[in-house]
Sequence to fold (359 residues):
Amino acid sequence: MADTPLDLTLDAARLTAQLVDFPSESGTEKPLADAIETALRNLPHLTVDRHGNNVVARTRLGHAERVILAGHIDTVPIADNVPSRLDADGTLWGCGTCDMKAGVAVQLRIAATVPAPNRDLTFVFYDNEEVSADLNGLGHVADAHPEWLEGDFAVLLEPSDGQVEGGCQGTLRVLLKTTGERAHSARGWMGSNAIHAAAPILARLAAYEPRHPVIDGLEYREGLNAVGISGGVAGNVIPDECVVTVNFRYAPDRTEEEALAHVREVFADCGVTDLVVDDHSGAALPGLSHPAAAAFIEAVGGTPQPKYGWTDVARFSSLGVPAVNYGPGNPHLAHRRDERVDTAKILAGEERLRSWLTA
Ligand SMILES: [Zn+2]
Fold:
């Protein structure tokens, strides 16, 4: 419940239940951030800082390497699924069990039980991940206190079903405009049809062959797709404008500038009269060849997977910190009314991270 202090002596599975019973829909994280701050300030081996409802705790042991464990403390809206419920088979049900209070519980357990880690540690707990990007607490900390996020490698404990997911693809959305000349459709030859002028764009899209580049051993899958088209004035008018909305999902061996240059080149001779960037979030390199990342993968086992969607690992990447997703929840169960997590996986995640950080 929201007025009980967090008990970091509970194992990560029981602590997950306590966190789930502490509601924290996006925008209402303050009580949980307060409880996390209070619990961490009781740990003498950590220095604790706070910015808004974002809490950052660090060891200062003077190790050559620093690793960041990060997680968001907000959830999507509750759907009659709080408080949590634990089944006899170890399934814990409730809003945020999977995404991502199980991961936050693992962070808190490592913070409480590993006072002398083999690398310096930074724990980041941030708000507003499940809402628009400008509210994202990790972004706010990166802007206000970038030094709090300095490190050699970051693990985001977002649900990844106990698999290491490296890097993430970038996403660029552009509006491709064609222009024509209006005329009465009874005398169509007097005008010029902007929708017909979009045909070369569509043909180019249909024929496009996306790359599958392998980076740090992970195969990414690019995609260039029309995601919208608009045009037309009235049922008896030759249209003078058409806009094709195109989304380019690109692998992390391209910079934002290179991705945009590629899109311009693809449509260079397609009669586009205007190209407008509607939205752009850069990709993140997996960075799995970094020694800290390699040691992490060695310790937690399994085969790393590429991340196709965009995640906060890209924020770390833009700060020069290679980052991966590694969390106990199954991502397919996130945001669902029947959201749940296998508590055995939470305990396994806790153990694997502890053995990596104490080896
Ligand atoms: Zn999440």
The radius of gyration is 24 Å. The CA atoms of residues 51 and 141 lie 7 Å apart. The chain has two domains: 12-167+284-358, 170-281. Residues 72, 99-100, 129, 158 surround zinc ion (CB under 6 Å).
